[in-house]
Design goal:
alpha+beta, six-stranded antiparallel β-sheet, about 30% helix, globular
């Protein structure tokens, strides 16, 4: 699943999309792409719940991001997750995102 999410992230970053264009393209890779925001962040629904962990060790600052109970801002970008839903900013550093996904994604 990590590889699929990173592929979605790469696609979101290849150009400045219109949100509806990006959502169409993301759905071609992962059918359960739920939404794309005006800032081109995207939300996906996973098959299993994400692990509710803190991201302080990654330099994250907890923040509020409706409707997510768990959201973290970084120097650049954010990530938010709750249950099976994961929202990712396209501005988050890819290496940081990869490390976070290792921690929060459920075991297959």
């Amino acid at each position: 699943m990590k590889e699929v999410i990173l592929k979605l992230y790469d696609l979101a970053n290849i150009k400045d999309w219109k949100p509806w264009e990006l959502q169409t393209e993301l759905k071609k890779i992962y059918e359960d792409t739920i939404a794309v925001g005006d800032d081109l962040s995207f939300t996906v629904k996973l098959k299993k719940d994400l692990k509710p962990v803190g991201l302080e060790d990654f330099g994250g600052k907890k923040c509020k991001m409706h409707p997510f109970r768990t959201a973290w801002r970084f120097d650049s970008g954010f990530i938010a997750f709750e249950g099976k839903f994961l929202r990712i900013s396209r501005k988050i550093d890819k290496n940081l995102l990869s490390d976070i996904l290792e921690l929060i994604l459920p075991e297959d």
